[in-house]
Write a structure and sequence with these properties.
Length: 247
């Protein structure tokens, strides 16, 4: 892409976006600024958290879980997300397998998104080795997108729970490397994105030497903005799952 400007995501066609991540706060390290733009444009956005993040602080796990879910609700409020589902898979030891795929599939069939955002699942990232829960969540999300469209996979959800098979059109992951598209978050979306990370106040206070969100989130967004030719952006790798095959 050297010398080329990344195109904007075709968000004018988006109606409903489901974001699937492992922990409270995973959405808030940049991506939530794009969410703020989408909700302001009338796009419905739902979050599915696979754990309550109970292993992420020195407090007792149950206390941490309650605190982090409450902070996540505040973070959702900052960017206009009303639909928050939090599962109770164990934090820190998330397992990619049928249980995880089944739960993500259920939420896809319930929420009926045309866009699913999931974690990347590379072992190595520009910031070091990725955390195991992120990798498990990302791979299970990718598999669950296909599962959700096949009525013979987890058929009890169709037969017993009254959920219909559903096929999302777009699959997005973070565009830290090999981005294909961007979202211009200059101005209000970026401000709300910063506020969403600031909502995790107790969690951030428990992390030694964590930089202030108002300092580093705009820095990263400015770097990403260069790829789009705008002041601040969030980058994605986008896959059109219903595009005709390239000949």
């Amino acid at each position: 892409m050297a010398g080329m400007t990344l195109p904007a995501l075709p968000e004018e066609s988006f109606r409903r976006v489901l974001c699937v991540v492992a922990h409270p706060d995973d959405m808030e390290y940049g991506t939530s600024a794009a969410v703020a733009r989408w909700t302001a444009r009338g796009i419905e956005v739902g979050y599915l958290l696979l754990t309550r993040g109970e292993a992420g602080m020195p407090n007792p796990p149950e206390e941490t879980a309650r605190l982090r879910v409450a902070e996540q609700r505040a973070a959702c409020d900052a960017v206009g997300v009303a639909h928050l589902t939090v599962l109770e898979h164990p934090d820190g030891v998330l397992v990619h397998g049928l249980d995880l795929r089944r739960d993500i599939c259920r939420e896809i069939r319930r929420f009926k998104p045309d866009v699913v955002f999931g974690s990347a699942f590379e072992v190595e990232t520009p910031y070091g080795f990725d955390q195991a829960d992120h990798r498990a969540a990302g791979l299970a999300t990718l598999d669950a997108i296909r599962d959700a469209g096949n009525r013979w996979v987890f058929p009890e959800q169709v037969d017993d729970e009254g959920l219909e098979p559903h096929s999302a059109r777009w699959y997005l992951t973070s565009g830290m490397t090999d981005a294909t598209h961007g979202v211009d978050v200059t101005g209000e979306p970026l401000r709300r994105g910063v506020a969403s990370l600031e909502a995790h106040a107790a969690y951030l206070a428990a992390l030694p030497d964590h930089p202030a969100p108002a300092e580093f989130i705009p820095q990263f967004a400015a770097m990403s903005g260069k790829a789009m030719g705008v002041e601040h952006a969030v980058l994605f790798r986008a896959h059109d799952l219903q595009a005709p095959p390239e000949i």
